Amino acid sequence: MSSQAVLESASTAPKRGADFGRLHLWGKLLWPALALAILLAIDGICIRGFFSVSIVQGRLTGTLVDIFRYGAPVMVLSVGMTFVLATGGVDLSVGAIMALAGAIAAKAAMPTSLNGMGISPGSGIAIALLVSVLAGMWNGMSVAWLGMQPIVATLVLMVAGRGIARLCIGAANVPLSGTIWTALHNPHLTLPMAPIIVLIVAVVAGLLTRVTSIGLFVEALGGNPVASRYAGVRVGLITFMVYVFCGLCAGIAGIISSADVMIANASSTGMYMELDAILAVVIGGTALTGGRFSLVGSLIGALLIQTLQTTLIYKVPIQQTLVIKAVVVLAVCLLQSAEFRRKSLAVCARLGLSRTRKAAAQVAS
Amino acid sequence: MKRLRLDQRHVPLAATLVVCVLLYVLTGLQYPSFFSPLVLADLFSDNARLDIAALGSTFVILSGGIDLSVASVMALATMFMATAVERFHLHPAIAIVLTLFVGCGVGYLNGALIHFFDLPPFLVTLATLFLARGCCFLISMSPVAAESPFFQSFGEAGLHLGTITLHLGTIVFAGVAIVCIYAAHLTRFGRTVYAMGGNEQAARLMGLAVGKTKVLVYVFGGLAAALAGIMAMANIPSGDPLNYLGQELDVIAAVVIGGTVLTGGVGYLAGTVLGVLILGIMQDFITFGNRDAAWTQITTGLLLFVFVAMQTVLGRWKPGQRQKLWTRRTSTQSIGITS
């Protein structure tokens, strides 16, 4: 946050109180929500039956359900990433941690004859989550106590994590089996399992930020780390915990996306997922520089990315999807850039001005 | 005799050099054939691609930015080159010029968006990562083989010095390295890059052409990536849309291991060359010993960790003492105010 913004908010805060803050937050959510609404409207017009949801063989099916289901990994990642970005850091290693979690879970469940540990798939998943927490602790330790820049500190695991995953299960696909994996993949519930997990993670994170003072501390830390240390916030501990939580979220996302295809793979799981997650958070209105954050915004951002992906799969030849995704990313970034809004407004004003001048000249002649 | 004193600024570079030499000697002791000049020549020619791209990226990182689109631009360059020569039967020289223009174009897009609209480099180059990769797929979904005689001679070209051959890639890399080191340390452009990496606001207030330099830095990054892609075709004569997936990490890792700090303003181009060499020797060590390729990633990560930890500790060392004193004094002051 710039010093000017601090001054502004300080001068307006006592006058308008809490309402101002809420209004400000809604203003931030407006852009991503608007973008999502526009995209959904286009889909509704162009794709027949886009909004139809039906129950087939006791399971909820439909394009909207698919968006929630396949968007689940990025949504979980974006929850953890929101906190990291809010402290002014970044976690590049989440994609690698996803692959690592999948690989560890698969290796744990493999029989001992195949170099596995031969334990139940359920404890395998527990071990995988534990390892992701450890990975998060490694990141947190590097950033909080060794004082490395977050981008390099997490780059270490981004590079090495996939190597460790490959060391565990090799380069090939490892099929997953067991009741818990089938339950995660295709449960005997009306709702698919992945969105439920997202909901749980999001609610826990939301409660942590709103009921406890952790959210306040994270925002303070992102706004000005030195000032928050003087104010008595335990900066090191909060930074550490934020990365641990992000690691855990990445582990959960890894389990979800492995269960999605019922396969663990060291290189394809979570490939470029860290970029999608960061993008989702930034679209959701959390600045890369830290400070204010919005969990709801991040979830909307993740949904926007997944809706776009789904739309592209329906409507566009596969070779064009990446180009269109890039263009949309750039467009969203530009919309959020104050500089771009100012410049385009100036251009519009100049055009309008020249038109009125012309009209005035015509009238005069 | 003049006493040899090591400037604090040169410590990371010296450490990189020491590690590089140690790795070389250790690998040579383990596998005696490694010391042969043939292997050394191959070490340079195999890594010329990574080297050229990393040199371009070093400028970007020195200026305080980051370029994630390098690997995608490299892949795009191979695709563009292969289709231009094979499908449209353009003269190779024209194809090379066009490919370099494409690289500059992507770089300009990066620089312009970052400079004119004040967007974070991380996001912009992420978008162009997708964009360049997407353009590869637009050109062709499957690999394009480059079979014309030009590519054949392209792979074999070089200076023959007795038994060893200096490949074209090595020669181009050497040229690029000399130009880069000259540009970084002896021109106005280089000084501006260092200044804006150190403190952009201060550089602007000093009247340096920050905006122009920022755009130029990304254009140069794109140009270097495209050149790296072209040079890679000497080794692998084909254009593959899935080439170099995730290799932007190797480029950044090489730059960081070479002693350049990711926040900008501190680092040397020569360090980047050493960083790439370290990665190359490690790669050779792993392939010579027939080990799992996963070890390459793990050791790269570990090296990255060790070097950055060292830089952080060194960076904190001298100014850190001052900072500590300052912290203590202010904290006692604040206690004084509150009590």
Oligomer: heterodimer
What is the helix content of chain B? over 70%
What's the CATH C level of chain B?
Mainly Alpha
Q: Given this structure, which CATH class of the largest domain in chain A is correct? A: Mainly Alpha
Q: Give the termini distance of chain B in whole angstroms.
A: 59 Å
Mean pLDDT of chain A: 84
CATH fold topology of chain B: ABC transporter involved in vitamin B12 uptake, BtuC
Structural class of chain B: mainly alpha
Tell me, briefly, the overall form of chain B.
Answer: globular
Under the CATH scheme, which architecture of the largest domain in chain A would be assigned? Orthogonal Bundle
Largest sheet of chain B: 2 strands, antiparallel
Average pLDDT of chain B works out at 85
Protein model, in words:
The complex is a heterodimer of chains A (365) and B (339). Chain A is mainly alpha-helical. Chain A folds into two domains: 60-315, Orthogonal Bundle (ABC transporter involved in vitamin B12 uptake, BtuC), CATH 1.10.3470; 318-354, no CATH class. Chain A contains 16 helices and four strands. Chain B is mostly helical. Chain B has one domain: Orthogonal Bundle (ABC transporter involved in vitamin B12 uptake, BtuC), CATH 1.10.3470. Chain B has 14 helices and four strands. Chain B has helices at residues 11-30, 37-46, 48-62, 70-86, 92-116, 121-139, 149-156, 168-186, 188-198, 200-205, 210-235, 248-257, 269-288, 294-338; strands at 144-145, 158-161, 164-167, 238-239. In chain B, helix 3 packs antiparallel against helix 13 (269-288) and helix 4 (70-86) crosses helix 11. Chain B is globular. The chains are: A mainly alpha (365), B mainly alpha (339). Chains A and B meet through helix 7, helix 13, helix 15 and helix 16 of A and helix 6, helix 12 and helix 14 of B.
Secondary structure blueprint with pairings:
The complex is a heterodimer of chains A (365) and B (339).
Chain A: H1 3-16, H2 18-46, E1 53-56, E2 59-62, H3 63-70, H4 72-86, H5 94-109, H6 121-145, H7 150-169, E3 174-175, H8 179-185, H9 193-210, H10 214-223, H11 225-230, H12 235-261, E4 263-264, H13 273-283, H14 295-315, H15 321-336, H16 338-364
Helix pairs in contact in A: 2-14, 3-14, 4-9, 4-12, 4-13, 4-14, 5-6, 5-7, 5-12, 6-7, 6-12, 8-12, 10-12, 13-14
Chain B: H1 11-30, H2 37-46, H3 48-62, H4 70-86, H5 92-116, H6 121-139, E1 144-145, H7 149-156, E2 158-161, E3 164-167, H8 168-186, H9 188-198, H10 200-205, H11 210-235, E4 238-239, H12 248-257, H13 269-288, H14 294-338
Antiparallel strand pairs in B: 1-4, 2-3
Helix pairs in contact in B: 1-13, 3-8, 3-9, 3-11, 3-12, 3-13, 4-5, 4-6, 4-11, 5-6, 5-11, 8-9, 9-11, 12-13, 12-14, 13-14
